[in-house]
């Protein structure tokens, strides 16, 4: 009997390292050296004699945002489920990050984590059990993952532009890339190739050019616009540690997102975001005005009184998208995809890096599923990846589908799901138990299906519908 998606999700989010692994291939090639590619390489190092990462961005980028990650300067969040996976594959990761300058969470960090929904201050997030929260910039986190990955003896990285795949006898047998500074492509043989080339992956074209079907793609046109700035952290300006502000579209409300993170280097990174025609600009005055007029006081205090470090940086993402490889009727052996090359979501929900770590968990399960699983099409891998993608997609699109400019597609049972989701969300703002259960789903520690358990349903109904309303004040009649 097949396992339920919730059960599969639970297995994939485990913190336990595999008890046994075996080398089943000579060489694996990973196209892309971001979080998804690095995590895939780390998993593959247990199963391949040699792992080669081909990374597009030049080797002299240093510690700043990479050109291949246009949103690299923006606020990023590693959800607790992602932190669990980093610790699983790189033991001591959190401790090392803190030693290298990641902010040490304050003893009252929970109380100083502010979450505002539709202008209302909710309960602070419950402890996740994933260890001290890692709140850093994307370049800091990725640099440490890269360093730990390349410290593994059988993993190497070369720099160049991926240029295509080599096909033979119903499988992928290698990859082509043009080395940094070169002009002619180099062919690297491989028993397994991983596409970790991100949203702009050309894998669909390469498959079609070689007679294979393209994976179907689904999009939701979110039209997200956001702006980010760094500030020197100064408690005389604000005691903010972490803050999230979310106004949902509704009567009399404009959908907006805001965020403040305390990051390495004694800095704040602060984001303001809007949708469709609501476009934050690079203009400092516009940034300050938005922070003061549309967000809680701490945003305005930091923007007006804090020391801005560098420029305001903007980013636009037209859509959330997913490629459903599991639906292909034909798929070459020796090929998998991971990270944003499979699915990328509205980034304000922080699911991207965490999903990439969980795709690595799928890869580990797949490579341990038989003697030489890579010699057959990776359907089992893509079926498990779908469980991760479905969970993240459900969380992000259930909110985004309410945006005025988004017109579906609406999932089956949408009205009932929306009604209960709104009820659960509203009651979680004041009830610690529901706050914890919802938080474990939104941070990808648990599958969304866990929210439909009877105890959760009844608690939300009791608190949201059956709680006695305050008695109306007595009517005072005017004397006759």
From TrEMBL:
SUPFAM superfamilies assigned to the protein according to its UniProt record, in alphabetical order: FAD/NAD(P)-binding domain
UniProt xrefs under InterPro entries: FAD/NAD-bd_sf
PANTHER family per the UniProt record, alphabetical: THIAMINE THIAZOLE SYNTHASE
Protein name: FAD-dependent oxidoreductase
Organism from which the protein derives: Micromonospora orduensis
């Amino acid at each position: 009997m097949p396992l339920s998606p919730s059960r599969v999700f639970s297995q994939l989010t485990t913190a336990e390292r595999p008890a046994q692994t075996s080398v089943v291939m000579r060489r694996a090639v990973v196209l892309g050296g971001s979080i998804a590619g690095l995590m895939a390489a780390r998993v593959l190092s247990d199963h391949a004699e040699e792992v080669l990462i081909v990374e597009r961005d030049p080797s002299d980028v240093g510690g700043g945002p990479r050109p291949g990650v246009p949103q690299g300067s923006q606020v990023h969040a590693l959800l607790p489920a992602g932190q669990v996976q980093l610790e699983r594959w790189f033991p001591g990761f959190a401790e090392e990050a803190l030693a290298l300058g990641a902010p040490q969470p304050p003893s009252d960090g929970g109380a100083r984590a502010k979450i505002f929904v539709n202008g209302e201050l909710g309960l602070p997030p419950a402890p996740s059990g994933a260890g001290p929260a890692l709140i850093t910039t994307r370049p800091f986190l990725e640099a440490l993952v890269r360093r730990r990955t390349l410290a593994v003896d059988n993993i190497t990285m070369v720099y160049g532009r991926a240029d295509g795949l080599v096909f033979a006898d119903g499988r992928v047998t290698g990859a082509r890339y043009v080395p940094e500074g070169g002009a002619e492509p180099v062919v690297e043989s491989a028993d397994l190739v991983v596409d970790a080339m991100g949203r702009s992956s050309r894998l669909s074209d390469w498959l079609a050019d070689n007679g294979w079907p393209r994976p179907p793609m689904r999009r939701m046109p979110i039209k997200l616009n956001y702006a980010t700035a760094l500030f020197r952290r100064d408690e005389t300006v604000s005691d903010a540690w972490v803050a999230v502000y979310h106004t949902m579209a509704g009567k009399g409300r404009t959908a907006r997102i805001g965020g403040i993170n305390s990051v390495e280097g004694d800095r704040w990174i602060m984001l303001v975001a809007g949708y469709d025609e609501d476009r934050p600009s690079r203009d400092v005055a516009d940034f300050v005005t938005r922070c003061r007029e549309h967000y809680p006081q701490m945003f305005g205090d930091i923007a007006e009184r804090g020391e801005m470090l560098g420029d305001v940086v903007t980013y636009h993402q037209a859509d959330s998208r997913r490629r459903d490889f599991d639906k292909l009727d034909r798929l070459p052996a020796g090929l998998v995809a991971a990270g944003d090359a499979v699915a990328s979501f509205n980034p304000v929900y922080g699911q991207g890096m965490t999903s990439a770590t969980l795709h690595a968990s799928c890869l580990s399960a797949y490579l341990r599923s038989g003697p030489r699983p890579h010699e057959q099409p990776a359907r089992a891998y893509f079926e498990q990846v779908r469980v991760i993608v479905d969970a993240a997609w459900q969380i992000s699109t259930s909110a985004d589908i309410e945006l005025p400019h988004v017109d579906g597609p609406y999932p089956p049972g949408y009205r009932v799901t929306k009604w209960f989701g709104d009820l659960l969300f509203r009651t979680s703002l004041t009830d610690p138990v529901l706050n914890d259960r919802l938080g474990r789903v939104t941070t990808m520690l648990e599958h969304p299906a866990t929210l439909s358990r009877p105890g959760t349903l009844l608690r939300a109904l009791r608190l949201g519908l059956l709680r006695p309303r305050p008695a109306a004040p007595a009517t005072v009649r005017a004397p006759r």
